[in-house]
Design a protein that fits this description.
The protein has one domain: FAD/NAD(P)-binding domain (3-Layer(bba) Sandwich), CATH 3.50.50.60. It is built from 13 helices and 18 strands. The longest helix has 17 residues. The chain is globular, with a radius of gyration of 21 Å. The structure holds flavin-adenine dinucleotide. The site of flavin-adenine dinucleotide (FAD) has 43 residues, from helix 1, strand 2, helix 2, strand 12 and strand 16.
Length: 412
Amino acid sequence: MSPIAVVGAGIIGVTIAFELQRRGRNVILIDKDAPGKGASYGNMASIAVTEFMPASRPSVWAQMPKWLLDPEGPVRVRPSYLPKLAPWFLRFLEASRPSRVRKLEAAGAVLCKRVYEDLDPLLQAAGLADMLSAEGCLSLYADDAEFKTDREHIEVLERFGFRHEILDGNAIRDLEPALATKIGRGVLFPDNRSVKDPYRLVVALSERFLSLGGGVEQGEVVGFDRAGDVVAGIRLKDGRVIKAAEVVLCAGAYTGRLSRLLGEPIPLETERGYHTQIMAPGVSMRHSIIWPARAFMVTPTAGGIRVGGTVEMAGLDAPPDYRRAKVLVKRAREALPDLTSEAATEWMGHRPALPDTVPVIGPSARHRGVFYATGHGHLGLTYAATTGRLIADLVTGATPPIDLTPYRVDRF
Ligand SMILES: Cc1cc2nc3c(=O)[nH]c(=O)nc-3n(C[C@H](O)[C@H](O)[C@H](O)COP(=O)(O)OP(=O)(O)OC[C@H]3O[C@@H](n4cnc5c(N)ncnc54)[C@H](O)[C@@H]3O)c2cc1C
C-alpha cells in the first residue's frame, strides 16, 4: 500500500511523521532540504504556553503606529511589499473585532492548555525528555507603567487559568542575578519552559522516525497528480512522482504555495524573525526572558545564549536584513548589561503566519485524504506535539480529544 506522505520536515512535519509511524503507519517525509532547516532551526526554543493571544488584539493595534514609525521598532513592513500584504492585512483587521478576538483567544488557549499532556509523552517515547529545561520564562518591566501596559495579557491568562507569579525587582534578580537593576517588576511563567536546542530536537525526532522504519525523501514538491477529489501522487522538481495514500501538508510558511496548487488557498504570510546565537555571552542564565516593551526574547540554549524576536513583513523571497538582529542584541543589553556578542551568528526564519493567529489543523475541505498542519506562527514549537497528536488522530480515524472546528482550513 502507498505510504502517507508528510510534506515538510520542520518541527511540525517530523512530529506528525514520528507520531504516525509510532502508530504503525508507513510514512514518507519529504523536504526540499535536510530536516529542520526552516523556521524550526532557529526559533527561540520556548514552549510559550502563555503567548497564545491573537496578534490582532486591541493592545497591539494601540501600539502599532508607534512601532511602525520606529525603524528599530518590533514590527517592520517593507514598503515594496505592502501591495502584496494588503489582502492578508484586511483579514488581520477583520480578526480584531472584539467578539472574534475572544474566540481566537479561546482557540489558542485550548491548544496551550494541553501542550504538556502531548509533549511529555512524545519526548518520553522518543527518549528525548532531557531536551526540555526545568525553568520557566521571566517577563520584565522597567516600572509599574510598563507593567500596566501588559496588564491585558495577564488578565487573559487569569481568565484561562495559566500559572504566573508577579515579582518585584529584587525577587527577579534573586532568580537571575545578571539582570539590570533598572528592572523593577516581573512575572514568572513557570510553564514556559524551553528546549535546549530546537534544531537538535527536529533532527533527533527525524532519526527516531527513521529507526521506526520511516522514510525520508529529499526533493522540492512542485505539483500534485489528482484523480477526482483524491491526490494520487506528489510531483518533485527533479521529475520524480511519489505515490501516496494520504498527504499531510506542513511546509511551514510555504504551505500556502502548495495549497494553491490544490485549488485551496490558505492566506499564509511569513512573519520573518531573527536571532543572534552568542556562544561566548559573558553572562549565564537559567530562565528565558522577554521584555514586552522592548520586544525581544533571550533564551539560554545548549549552544550559548540566543537573542531573538522581531516581525518583518517582506515575503518569502527578500534577502534578510540583519540590522534587525543587531537591534535585538542592543535591546537585550539593556536587561543584561554584561552581555557580550563574542562568537555570534545571525539567522532569519519564516514564521508561518495566518491573519487570525490560530493554526490550521485539519482535513482539506476539497480533497479526500489530504490534511493541513500549518500557520503555527510564533508557537510552532509549542504546538508541535499537540498538532502531531491531532493530525495522527485524524489520519488514523481516531477521535481527537478537542473540537477542531476553530482550526479548520475553510474558515477564511
Ligand atoms: C525568530 C523566531 C523565533 C521563534 N520562537 C519560537 C518560540 O520560542 N516558540 C515557538 O513555539 N515557536 C517559535 N517560533 C515559531 C516556530 O519556529 C515556527 O512556528 C515553527 O518552526 C514552524 O514549523 P513548521 O514545521 O511549520 O515550519 P518549518 O520549520 O519552516 O518547516 C517547513 C519545512 O517545509 C519545507 N518545504 C517548504 N516548501 C517545500 C516544498 N515545496 N517541498 C518540500 N519541502 C518544502 C522547508 O524546507 C522546511 O523544512 C519562532 C520563529 C522565529 C522565526
